[in-house]
Amino acid sequence: MIIQISPERNYAVGCLTNYKEIVFGKTSIVNDKFIYEVFKSKNIIKEYWKFLHCNPSHLGHVKFSIPNNFYVKLSLGRGANGIVYQIEHENIQYAMKISNKTSTKEYEIAEKMNNYINEHSLSDIKIIHMFNIQGFILSRPVGKLMNKNDLCKKKYINQLFKQLSIGQKLGFVHRDIRIYNLILFNDDIYLIDWDSSTYNGFQGNYEGTFTTASTSVLTEYELTHGKQVSAYYADDCLSIIYMLLLSKCTKEEHAALKQYASVSSAGELIVERSEILLQRHPTIIDHLNEIEKQRHNLFDIDDLHNRCQQIIQQHIDLI
């Protein structure tokens, strides 16, 4: 944490922490020279503790701090836009994302999905619940990231499609379906992170998965440098299928795909992924291509999901 100071002050205080030990640093200007001091938490004088949670009267202003009654337990994972922590608040465990993007979008979508489930008495469908507590968006349950060895289970795939159907029937396209956005809790799967979602038929700047994106999305990304990429319900379904297929890849194949995705090389990713799938799953390619061609006309969510689940059952070994 670096504390931002106002221009008229002649010193700044910052700190680094691993949540077990805290190291404070102070930089001062004396006679036009910088003076540096370091203090460890066990030796820190009481006066400096105020800088962990200070206000403009203490030291200019602080952009961000975690409330005192949020107890950080551990880091759950890191993404492109932030870090997710497990915290405890009033003896309840939550996941909390610290991100450079606002979480209100996810919160609002979760609220709409929960309302839809209640209105239609769909109590068998479990989704992540989100809470706005002291201005922070927290979520439950706190699960563990899905392991690729456990992914290909009929139960999990059915649960995934049911959750996705709620979001899509509300008009949303997730756009970021990949194994890192699936968590397990009590042997139930949960689809998380709707932050990259948009509406069906959208065309514009792309946010979302690369490795499991539909070929149509990757092609449009390559042609427009990511500026004019469309989004349709079918893209999410194709992402599920690609995710399942690629879970069978070797480490070397995963590394190659990850390398192209990390530099947004959509064209090379298309070629590499196609070669892998032709070697491992040649019979499924025609079915995927057919959905790709029709993606902009597939509006019936139930029919689309049934069609994709049939493809999965026929061509992918589920347990």
Name some characteristics of this structure.
319 residues; alpha+beta; Phosphorylase Kinase, domain 1; Transferase(Phosphotransferase), domain 1; 3 domains; 9 helices; globular
Task: Please describe what this structure looks like.
The protein has 319 residues and is α+β, with helices and mostly antiparallel strands. The protein folds into 3 domains: 13-53, no CATH class; 70-140, Phosphorylase Kinase, domain 1 (2-Layer Sandwich), CATH 3.30.200; 144-318, Orthogonal Bundle (Transferase(Phosphotransferase), domain 1). The protein is built from 9 helices and 15 strands. It has helices at 56-59, 104-119, 154-169, 215-224, 233-246, 251-262, 266-280, 285-294, 301-315, and strands spanning 11-17, 22-30, 33-40, 71-78, 82-89, 92-99, 129-133, 136-140, 144-145, 172-173, 182-185, 188-191, 198-199, 203-204, 229-230. It has a 5-stranded antiparallel beta sheet, covered by helices on one side. A 3-stranded antiparallel beta sheet has the order 1-2-3, with no helix packed on it. It has a 3-stranded antiparallel beta sheet with strand order 9-11-12. The model has no long low-confidence stretch (mean pLDDT 88). Residues 70-299 form the Protein kinase domain. This is Protein kinase domain-containing protein. InterPro entries: Kinase-like_dom_sf, Prot_kinase_dom, Protein_kinase_ATP_BS. One of its GO terms (molecular function) is protein kinase activity. Keywords: ATP-binding, Nucleotide-binding.
